[in-house]
Amino acid sequence: MAAVRFALSPRDGMFFKDGRGWYTSDSERGHAVPWPYPSTLRGAIRTAWGRAVETAEGRIFTPDDWLERTKNITIGTVVALRRARGEAWSPSHRMWPVPADALCSGISRSVHRLDPIPRKIPTLGRGDDLAREALWRPDMPPGGKPEAAPAFWTDTELSDWLCDRPVLKLHAEEHETRSMTTRIDLRIGIDPELGTVSEGALFATETVETLQRVGDDLFEWGIGIEAQLPEGGNGLARIFTLGSDRRLATSEPLPEAVFAPPPSMDLRDTPGLRLIVVSPACFSAGWLPDGFEVHGNEYRGHLAGVTSEVVLRAAFVPRATHVSGWDMARRRPKRTRRLVPPGAVYFFQKTERAAFTANEMARLWLQAIGTQEDRDEGFGRVIAGPWETP
Q: What does residue 293 show for φ and ψ, rounded to 5 degrees?
């Protein structure tokens, strides 16, 4: 297998349909996910690689050929990218999901950090209920209703947040630079007998724009991907098709530094560890990371790169999302997965109360958690930072 790192640049936006049907509302609109799931991108890579091999061998793959020849293609980290048109992709173009422990509220110019604290009032229960109710929770700051958070932070903003440096709230005009807009594309079909629009073929799709004009400047969004491709093929395809309507995207090689920790990461030994989910994570127990079990009134387990047993102290997990897909080779739906969304934050302490070292946090940079099958499809990537426990 050969490791490749590349960026996909959609030429006319993206439309990755969600799991809802076409006619789930009066609008007859195909609803899109705001950012492609890693499993969808893996499918696009398998298609592009397989088509190139078909061309080279002068034959068409059977469904069994597709399954066998592309089964070892895996996908690692997927990261959002945003650059000014004409620039070469670099680590400074990375965009990250905003962590769930970041709150914009009140008159403060800085983003408020939600730090969990122990519960003051005990609860009744046993087993999993007792452990879940014993998780620490934050005190909400005064200041009224929280403000809307952007979809992404820049590389600098996330690095500052991980290292406990202040992050300033965005002005209203800055929000558009941290998210993508959508447009509605109308599709029609013509009845060949009547020469008029066929009502059964009239529908609309939500297309995510990847080109963005800010003032006089033009920016574009891309998708940075790490993948493993079989040896002996034609390598990385130049043209990909993406999404439900196979829109074209071009690929460009990426430097390894795009997937490395930022130079401004100033990690230090701390009594606690903050773990941020940066790609959707699939756990067998829903929100609870795999490998953690109830011990008394605590969740205990292990993290990759940390030799000591750890205790889960708090979990800030937004509402779960669901991903489903279609198996093109077998012509049947794939299993539906219930995912922890990007931005979820978990807080840990070691059971012996020893400090987490800077090296342990560094080893967790873009580490994958979850089952092997889900890790091979790019799910469950995390990054870590210090947490000053109360």
A: -130, 165
Q: Following DSSP, what letter does each residue of 172-197 receive, concatenated?
A: HHHHGGGS--EEEEEE--B-TTT-SB
Residue 272 has pLDDT above 90, yes or no: yes
Could you give the CA distance from residue 138 to residue 132 in angstroms, rounded to a whole number? Answer: 15
C-alpha to C-alpha distance for 121 and 98, rounded to whole angstroms = 30
Mean pLDDT value of segment 197-219: 82
Candidates 310, 369, 324; CA nearest to 344 is: 369
CA atoms within 13 A on the CB side of 192: 0
Structural element, H or E, at residue 137? strand 137-138
The sheet with strand 203-208 has its strands ordered as 29-30, 203-208, 182-187
d(CA 69, CA 229): 11
Provide the whole-model pTM. Answer: 0.90
Give the 3-state secondary structure of 342-383.
Answer: CCCEEEEEECCCCCECHHHHHHCCCEECCCHHHHHECCCEEE
- Say if 292 falls within a structural domain: no
First to last CA, the chain: 46
Does any domain span residue 205? Answer: yes
Using DSSP's 3-state secondary structure scheme, residue 310 falls into strand
Residue 141: alpha-carbon gap to chain centroid: 28
Does 383 fall in a domain?
Answer: no
189 in a structural domain:
yes
CATH code of the domain containing 199? 3.30.70
Domain count of the fold of the chain: 1
| Long-range pairs for 200-206: beta carbons < 8 A, 24 or more residues apart | 202/28, 203/22, 203/28, 203/29, 203/30, 204/27, 204/28, 204/29, 204/30, 205/15, 205/17, 205/29, 205/30, 205/32, 205/244, 205/245, 206/15, 206/29, 206/30, 206/31, 206/32, 206/182
Provide the β-strand partners of residue 316.
Answer: 345
Is residue 27 over pLDDT 70?
Answer: no
CA atoms of 260 and 91, how far apart (whole Å): 8
- Which residue range(s) make up the domain with 179? 2-95+175-259
Q: Residue 22 above 70 pLDDT?
A: no
